User: What shape does this take?
Amino acid sequence: MRRSAMIIRRLSLFVLALGLGARALAQTMPERLRAELDQLPHPRSVADFQAAPCLSHVNQNKTSFCWSFATCSFLEAEMARRQLPPVRLSPMYAAYCQYVEKARRFVQTRGESRVSPGDTFWGVFDACAQYGAMPSAVYEKLPDNPPFDHTRLYAELGRCLQEVKLRGQWNEARVLDRIRKILNRHLGKPPETFAHNGKTYTPRSFLAEVVRLPWSEYISVVSQESAPFNAFTELKVPDNWRHHTNFFNVPLPVFYEAFRSALRGGFTVAVEIDTSEPSYETLVRHCFIPSFDLPARELNQAARETRLRNGATGDDHAIHIIGWSEPGGEDWFLAKDSGKEAWRDGNQGIVFLHGAYVKLKVLAFIVHRDGVPPVKALLPPR
Assistant: This one.
């Protein structure tokens, strides 16, 4: 999904460049972006942000489980907000559990469901509800493996399921046994019990006694014209393989104000985001929409919807937003980004998102409902 969005974006920017004149064409893309950033009030460092308490950043390296890294970070921040003892949760455990469930759905649909490394933030919630959770210190990666390089894992899982479909081997128990053996080789076998702070837990008891979050109080928010506003809908992206319909759809002004008010109120949010824009790829840290791409006056619901429909905006990444800043009256947001691109050139997984980038490129976000009064007021009674 990310590759197709990047191709569309680059073609669009090439067409734009044809009409910009010799002087603009003489500049490289990084030069043009930096020149425009210099004209835009922007934060210089993390110290310029008001940030919620959270654990340190983690590099996911060559794994595609950004959804699990971002959501586990979000849950850790929720524990901090509720003044619970800090603990780093295992993204690998949620990913392991979800792969088992994806394989189960693959068998049940006779090979017609999607099995890939991707998921939404609800994937972690689903794994917690069905399996529980565990600390990263207990289940992270095999000690003799490169850090988070799952290239061979994806290939072996793909070959296994392709063979299952080709041969019509639809015995669910046997297929899941094969899938678990593959996962065990590459990720390690999850322990049935483990010690944490001197006490023995199962994944379920750890979730109930240590994580202790109010799971029914979280809400995901979207803004798309393709579905009725002020109602729950499905986020129709490939990674929503369970076809969750618990995304509350609101107009863009409400979407953005809810996002903004959550961060200003001390809450954090995990987001599904498109990162194919040139500033995200080129500048490492400052992500914004340049005026030569889309002037600020044209950034509205229609512009957002156009890019959703033509594929220029895709569900290619997930990150955790933890803070806000307003230099010169411009909204900027501080993000923890586990993607390896956010760790190049000495960057430590830190991203600054301009408000316009949020409006145009954040597909969905998840937050405690108390953090979004503009949306909470629109929710149907429970």
User: Anything to note?
Assistant: The first helix runs from residue 2 to 18. The chain has 14 helices and twelve strands.
